[in-house]
Amino acid sequence: MACPRPLSQCDPTPLPPGPPAGRWPLPLSRRRREMSSNKEQRSAVFVILFALITILILYSSNSANEVFHYGSLRGRTRRPVNLKKWSITDGYIPILGNKTLPSRCHQCVIVTSSSHLLGTKLGPEIERAECTIRMNDAPTTGYSADVGNKTTFRVVAHSSVFRVLRRPQEFVNRTPETVFIFWGPPNKMQKPQGSLVRVIQRAGLVFPNMEAYAVSLGRMRQFDDLFRSETGKDRYQPPARSLWPALCSLSAHSAQRACCSQHALL
């Protein structure tokens, strides 16, 4: 409606501010969408922060129960098993004859079944040792320059009995002074009717000079206890039912009882 008075006397009605130059107001629907999107983003950030704080609290509460006081270990060392106290007389049962296992060597060399000695030319040094202990069917023929030929004791697991006895020229006749120590499940090694015992006894008929012993049940129990204390596993309970003490470990412990000093050649 026009003002009836002169323009100079009229009070003009203020107009609402317009948009800045070059900009047009956004449609209402678009502004609502942007506001909704901003709210969703803020909600997502809040949820993430809440989850991180919750995880941090849970981790802190669990860690508080697992604090280990290292100061309590000062002056404490693990006491090794005194293998010197293990009796040698009842630790090994003669399979052939009524002989007693030789109980003392001043120096022993333990030669394991690995191939790490190849190319070392340690054969002469091994030959000079008073007693040499080998394992299973580890051969010496063709490798004497590195591992020597002398074999005082050969420790044989029940699973390797046939592999050893099928090659008598390598393991029995080549070093007739060798003493065989067999070990394995009691039903195979400690009973007269055990199948492996009969096989070893038949081999003794063919080779009268062969000397063989089986690890006694009492000694195997000692090794079981030692195996459990060293590994935390019980071979009589699954899944460790098939875990017999390592052959190298058994040989080393036997050597520690029978020898004044030992040298392991891996």
UniProtKB/TrEMBL annotation:
Localization per record: Golgi apparatus membrane
GO CC terms: Golgi membrane
Key words, A-Z: Disulfide bond, Glycoprotein, Glycosyltransferase, Golgi apparatus, Lipid metabolism, Membrane, Sialic acid, Signal-anchor, Transferase, Transmembrane, Transmembrane helix
Membrane topology recorded in Swiss-Prot or TrEMBL: Single-pass type II membrane protein
Transmembrane among keywords: yes
Membrane spanning stretches: 43-60
The species this protein was found in: Physeter macrocephalus (Sperm whale)
Family that this chain belongs to: Belongs to the glycosyltransferase 29 family.
Name used for this protein in its record: Alpha-N-acetylgalactosaminide alpha-2,6-sialyltransferase 6
GO biological process: one example: ganglioside biosynthetic process
Reactions it catalyzes: N-acetyl-alpha-neuraminosyl-(2->3)-beta-D-galactosyl-(1->3)-N-acetyl-beta-D-glucosaminyl-(1->3)-beta-D-galactosyl-(1->4)-beta-D-glucosyl-(1<->1')-N-acyl-sphing-4-enine + CMP-N-acetyl-beta-neuraminate = N-acetyl-alpha-neuraminosyl-(2->3)-beta-D-galactosyl-(1->3)-[N-acetyl-alpha-neuraminosyl-(2->6)]-N-acetyl-beta-D-glucosaminyl-(1->3)-beta-D-galactosyl-(1->4)-beta-D-glucosyl-(1<->1')-N-acyl-sphing-4-enine + CMP + H(+); 3-O-[alpha-Neu5Ac-(2->3)-beta-D-Gal-(1->3)-alpha-D-GalNAc]-L-Thr-[protein] + CMP-N-acetyl-beta-neuraminate = a 3-O-{alpha-Neu5Ac-(2->3)-beta-D-Gal-(1->3)-[alpha-Neu5Ac-(2->6)]-alpha-D-GalNAc}-L-threonyl-[protein] + CMP + H(+); 3-O-[alpha-Neu5Ac-(2->3)-beta-D-Gal-(1->3)-alpha-D-GalNAc]-L-Ser-[protein] + CMP-N-acetyl-beta-neuraminate = a 3-O-{alpha-Neu5Ac-(2->3)-beta-D-Gal-(1->3)-[alpha-Neu5Ac-(2->6)]-alpha-D-GalNAc}-L-seryl-[protein] + CMP + H(+); a globoside MSGG + CMP-N-acetyl-beta-neuraminate = a globoside DSGG + CMP + H(+)
Pfam family, one: Glyco_transf_29
Biased composition (Pro residues): 13-22
Principal subcellular localisation of the protein: Golgi
Record gene name: LOC102989509
Region Disordered: start-end pairs: 1-27
A GO molecular-function annotation: alpha-N-acetylgalactosaminide alpha-2,6-sialyltransferase activity
